[in-house]
Amino acid sequence: MSGHYLDLSANPLRFQPIGKSVNVFFDEANRQVFAVNSGNSDIAVTSWDTRKVAYIRVPETGPVLSIKFSLDKKVLAIQRSSQHVDFVNLGKSGDAAAYSQQCKGKTTEVRSFHWTNINEIIFVTTQGVEFYQVFPEKRSLKLLRSFSVSVNWFVFSPLKNVLLLSTSSAGNTICPFHFRPQQVTRMPKFEIDLPPLPKPSKADKNAAPAQPADKLRLLDRDVTLALLYGQLYVVVVRNQARSSGIGAEIVLYLLTKDVPAKRVAVLKLDMNGRFAVNTVDNLLIVHHQASKTSAVFDIRWAGDYDGAISLHHPVLAALPISPVTIPAQETKGEAPAATAAAVAAPTAAAAAAASVVPAAEAAAKSVSCELYSPNWVVFQPNIIIDARLGCMWEVELKLEVLVSMMADKKQLIDFLLLRSDSKIVILDVCKQSLVPGRQSSLSVIARVFDTLNAVYKEHLKLATARSSTRTDDRRLSISPQVNDISFSCVIDQHDMYKHVLSQVVDIKSIQYKFMVAVIIEYIRSLNSFQIAVQHFLYEVVIKLLVENNQFYQLHQFLQYHVLSDSKPLACLMLSLESVYAPAFQLALDMLKRLSTVNDDIVDVLLSKNQLIPALRFLRSNGREDSVPARLFLEAAANSGDNALFFTVYKFFEERNMRLRRKPGFSPADHCDQYVALFNSLFGDADTPKQQVNIPHLLE
C-alpha cells in the first residue's frame, strides 16, 4: 500500500497555461479559471464543476488586472484600471454593453473586488471597503455602505463572505467585515501577536541596535481564513528566527460576531521556511516547500490545553503528496514560466520563463508534475493551481492509508468518526480487529464500541429533538448545543451487524468464545448508552452458543438478562425446543415478563396444546371474558382428549352463565359443531362417566 496519505485529484482541471501573451486568473467563489489572451477579446473560462471551456467576447479596452463572474454567472466584472471596474451583462438578452463603476476618492485605488451575493459586490481599496448593489437591467451600481480604513493588505473568504483588512504599521491590527444580502457587519477589530525580534548573536556585539523600521511585520502571505468544524478561523503562520532553533508554528484565531477574535490553538510545525495551508474534511493540511512534505492537523485531536489555548502536533509524521503525472498537452512554441503572483492574487498579471513540451513529443508521453513547485498557488479550501502546467487539483485525503499508519485503534476511530465518507473504513477497521493475525484485545474492542456508540447515542438524541420540533405545535427550538452537533459518520447496529459481525461469525479460525465475548461487549456498550438492542444481535449470540452446545451458558444469559427480553427472542427460543427442552419454558417466562404480548403467550400455549395453562393465564390477567370460545374448543376437539374437551367446554359454559345468565352459546360464537360434539360424547349429562374437577384444573 502507498505510503502517502495525501493525493492530488486524479482528474485535474486543465486550462490554457500562462505564457507570454496569456494571463491566468482564478475565481475562488465560482471555482473558475480565466485565460486571457492579450490583444484578443476572447476569454476562455474553464469551470471545475462542469469541466467545460466557455469562450466569451468582451470589448478590448486595456490589459485585464482581474476578472470574475457574478455568482449567477450573468454579469462579468473586469478590472482594467486601478480606478474603476467594468461590468458586462451576459444574459439571454445579448446585451453585452459595458458599464463602469469608479471607486470613491480621486487618489483611491481599487486593490481587488469580490462578489458577495448575486447582484452585490465589494471593492477593496487603499482607503477601505465599498459595498455596492448591481442593477444589470439599468447598467448601474448603488453604493450601500462604505468604510474608511487605511489598508495594508486584505484576505477574503468566499465561503463565509468575510473580509479581513490589515491596518496598522506592523500589519497585525485586523478589521473583519461580514457581508450578507444588503447587509454588512463590522466585527470587532483584533491584534495578531507577532514573534519577538531575534536577539543579535555574540559575534554581532558591535552591530547597531534595531531601529523601529526593523520591527517585524505581518504579511498577507502568512494569513488565510479556514472553515473548520463549522467555525471560521484566522490562520496565521509564524516563522521563528533560524538562530533560535525553534520551529515555526501556526496560530488559530476564532472569529466571532460580538467579541474580538481570540487565539484558541497553536499548531507546532518543528521546521521553518515557506508554508501554504489547505483545509480538507475539517483538517488543516500544511505544505512545506523546502522539505516537500505536508502535515495533517486536527484541532479536535487531543492536545495540551492550558484552559485557553490548545497545543497541537501533527496527527502523523509529515509525508510528501503522492506522485502525480498528467497527459502532456499539445503546445506550440515557447512560453515563460508562471510566477505565483499571476494566479495567487487575481489583481496581478504577470509571468516569468521556461519551456513547454513540444507538440510532437507531448502527444507521446505524460508529464510528471513537480510536487511543491514554486509555481504552485494554494487556495481555500483544498485547491492547488500550477499555472505553468495549466492544471488545477483538489487535495484529497486517503483514509485507507491512514488506517495502516495509526496503531492506536481508539485514536484511529476518534479520527475517522470526524471524517466524511469514512463509514466503510471504520467498519473495515472493526472487522479487521476481530480477524486472527490483526486481532485486538477485548479491552481495546470495548473502547472502540464505546466510542462508536457515544456518537450513535448523540445522533439518536439529535434525531429525536428534530422530530419533536416538527410535531410540536409551538415549534420549540432545539438547544444550540444540539443544533451545533455535526456528525460526519454514525455507525448504528445494522451497520455493525451487516458489515462486521455477520461477516466474521462463521470464520472457523475465530474462536466462538471470543466472538460471543465481542458481541456481548457490544450489547453491553449499547445498554450503557441506553440504546435499545436490536434482536438480530441476540440471535447471533444464541446461534453461536447453540452451534457449540453451550446451552448452560445460554440459560445463564437468559436467566440473568444478559440477553434482554423481546418477542423475536422468545420466538427464537421456542424454535429451539427440539434441541433444548427448557427453551420452551424460558420463552414462555420471557413472554410473561413482556406485558404487551399477552396474546402471543396465548397463541404459543395453544400451539403447544397447553389449553389449561392458557386459560389459567387468561384468568390471572382478567381477560377470560374476552377470548373467543371457538378458538379453545377447536383446539380441545383436535387434541383427542375427551376430558380436556369436557373441561374447556364447561369453562365456557360457566362464563356464559356469568355473562348471559344461561349456559348456551349464542349464534355469534359459531360453536354449534362443538355443542353437537359435546352432546355426542357426553349426552345431556352434566358430567361424563369419568369425573372431571374443573376448578382444580384451572387453579
Q: What can you tell me about this protein's structure?
A:
The protein is of the alpha+beta class and 699 residues long. The protein folds into 2 domains: 6-195 and 219-312, 7 Propeller (Methylamine Dehydrogenase, Chain H), CATH 2.130.10.10; 407-682. Helices cover 29% and strands 25% of the residues. The protein is built from 19 helices and 33 strands. The strands form 8 sheets. The chain has a 6-stranded mixed beta sheet with strand order 20-21-22-23-28-27, with no helix packed on it. Strands 1, 2, 31, 32 and 33 form a 5-stranded antiparallel beta sheet that branches. Strand 20 and strand 21 (231-238) form a beta hairpin. Helix 6 packs parallel to helix 9, helix 9 runs antiparallel to helix 10 (535-547) and helix 12 (567-575) packs antiparallel against helix 13 (583-593). The model is unreliable at 330-363, 471-485 and 685-697 (pLDDT under 50).
Give me some keywords for this one.
19 helices; 5-stranded antiparallel β-sheet; 2 domains; alpha+beta; 29% helix; 6-stranded mixed β-sheet
